Amino acid sequence: MADQVSTNITWHDHSVSSEDRAKLNGHTGCVLWFTGLSGCGKSTIANTVDHLLHSEGVHTYVLDGDNIRHGLNKNLGFSPEDRTENIRRIGEVAKLFADAGTVTLTAFISPYRADRDQVREIMPEGSFIEVYVNASLETCEKRDPKGLYKKARAGEIKGFTGIDAPYEEPEKAELVLDSDNKGIDELAKEVVEYLKANGKLKA
Predict the structure, then answer these.
(1) How far apart are CA 59 and CA 151, in angstroms?
(2) CB 52 within 8 A of CB 73
(3) Closest C-alpha to 99, from 16, 202, 191
(4) Minimal CA–CA distance to 125: which of 50, 30, 199?
(5) How far is C-alpha 162 from the geometric centre of its chain's CA atoms?
(6) Residue 93, pLDDT score
(7) Dihedral sign, CA of 16, 18, 19, 21?
(8) How far apart are CA 95 and CA 123, in angstroms?
(9) Helices (H), 127-183
(10) Residue ranges of domains in the chain, CATH in brackets
(11) If 149 and its partner were Cys, which of 16, 141, 156, 201 is the partner (CB 3.0–4.6 Å)?
């Protein structure tokens, strides 16, 4: 029974619209989808943006890859199929956060273009902002904050993105951050400036 898909369900529309929530918050909800190799700076940049926006009174929340795998997705591994399901679930969660009027920041490697595009497709037009944190494999290996590349090179980790599993770069990212040559604070400010320039921080 547990593996059967629910069919006897009905969608319920909200009596409070997204526009109503935006007017109350003073900004619209959206999803900032940070993607890139392990060690490129996704989580650090996302959390810095979170801090900057919070200090300006913006309702924000960060959904981090490692944290999500401690709870919601703790039953998933790192096979291509599990990676796809991981991103599908977090995409649905991020959509709910954005609908509630929150600027939602996600930090996931999300290596497959099709998975990221699937999340884009379920979001309202203009509310999915793909942020490609572009850092070379060499840069990420030098940083290697968790020691994962070293383990992958030694064969201790299988299916590691960038080593023996692919990373598909975005083809239509709204924002590309140069994490090879710029610091965290500068990149975070670029993200905030993008949001302001594109009307995301004003209802």
Answers:
(1) 38
(2) no
(3) 16
(4) 30
(5) 18
(6) 93
(7) positive
(8) 6
(9) 137-143, 148-153
(10) 18-197 (3.40.50.300)
(11) 141
The span from the CA of 36 to the CA of 161, in Å, is 10
Place of tokens 């030694």: 154
Instruction: Calculate the CA 65 to chain-centre distance.
Output: 8
Q: Provide the 8-state DSSP code for 161.
A: B
pLDDT 10s digits, 129-184: 999 999 999 999 999 988 999 999 999 999 899 999 999 999 999 999 999 999 99
Give the three-state DSSP class for 167: coil
What is the DSSP pairing of strand 128-134 with strand 30-35?
parallel
Q: What angle do CA 99, 102, 103 make, to 5 degrees?
A: 115
**35 versus 10: which is more confidently predicted?**
35
Phi-psi region of 76 (alpha: psi -120 to 50; beta: other; left: phi over 0): beta
Chain centroid to Cα 143, Å, comes to 21
3-state secondary structure (DSSP) of residue 129: strand
CA angle 95, 82, 117 (to 5 degrees): 45
Q: For residue 58, give both structure tokens.
A: 């913006």
Whole-angstrom distance, CA of residue 138 vs CA of residue 1: 48
**What pLDDT does 38 receive?**
94
